[in-house]
Design goal:
Blueprint lengths: L4 H31 L4 H6 L1 H33 L16 E8 L2 E9 L7 E3 L6 E5 L4 H6 L7 E6 L2 E10 L1
Parallel strand pairs: 2-4
Antiparallel strand pairs: 1-2, 1-6, 3-4, 5-6
Helix pairs in contact: 1-3
């Protein structure tokens, strides 16, 4: 597993910037909708709609603020030298972790990128080859993986279902 971590960080930053743009656009649209109720009588009748649009706008502004905080944290993390991991070493922040699981559908492998932000974001490998999931140490999977080594097995409960993964490699 030799992926360019800096390229993956840039990909995540692009996704976060896109999310920020969408949040700002949605906020502006909701604020405009709240202001543009046609007449004074409609405003009175549609007071609830105006409140809902206002709440939506506030929610989108909060979302944009959180994304900006994530972008700052990612930039700060990316400025430091990327940690190096041995294939058999413990999982830590900045690690790419290959895990495997076996269930009724058969054997499956996944790759996680442990970062301080961006949980749940799917990244693509070089040339669109394969997918990686960003996890954070605060997530259930991230908490379970931190400090684990190749060969270790973890159990994580997700959506009420216990999943068991074996760590294959850390990079």
């Amino acid at each position: 597993m030799s992926l360019d971590k800096q390229a993956l960080l840039l990909q995540l930053a692009e996704r976060l910037q896109q999310s920020d743009r969408l949040a700002h656009r949605a906020e502006a649209e909701a604020r405009e909708a709240a202001r543009s109720l046609a007449t004074e009588s409609e405003k009175k009748e549609d007071g609830r709609a105006a409140l809902e649009f206002g709440s939506l706008a506030t929610g989108q502004a909060n979302r944009a603020r959180r994304v900006q905080e994530e972008l700052q944290a990612l930039t700060h993390f990316g400025q430091a030298p990327m940690p190096r991991f041995s294939r058999q070493g413990p999982v830590g922040l900045g690690a790419l972790v290959d895990v495997s699981t076996e269930d009724e559908e058969g054997f499956a492998e996944r790759t996680f990128f442990v970062l301080p932000v961006g949980a749940g974001t799917e990244l693509t490998g070089p040339g669109g080859d394969g997918f990686l999931s960003v996890i954070t140490p605060a997530s259930p999977v991230g908490r379970a993986l931190m400090g684990r080594k190749a060969g270790d097995t973890i159990e994580v409960t997700l959506a009420g279902e216990v999943r068991e993964w074996t760590v294959l490699e850390v990079a």
